[in-house]
Fold this sequence. Notes:
The protein has 68 residues and is mainly α. The protein has 3 helices and no strands.
Amino acid sequence: MKIGKRLAGWWRTRKAAARRDAGMSTTEYAMGTIAAAGFAAVLYKVLTSGAVTKALESVIGKALDAPF
């Protein structure tokens, strides 16, 4: 029974700590947006490169030409 009470107390503490968190500030949102935009730009460049485009076309071509 002691373990149950300790676990319940721990859980109450965690829930209270989560409620106190107000979320990200404006600066954190801005940094997250900049990071996401940078990652999207890099991903776009990689996916539109010649080697990746040829590989994707090859995979799609093999899938469409598969015998049934």
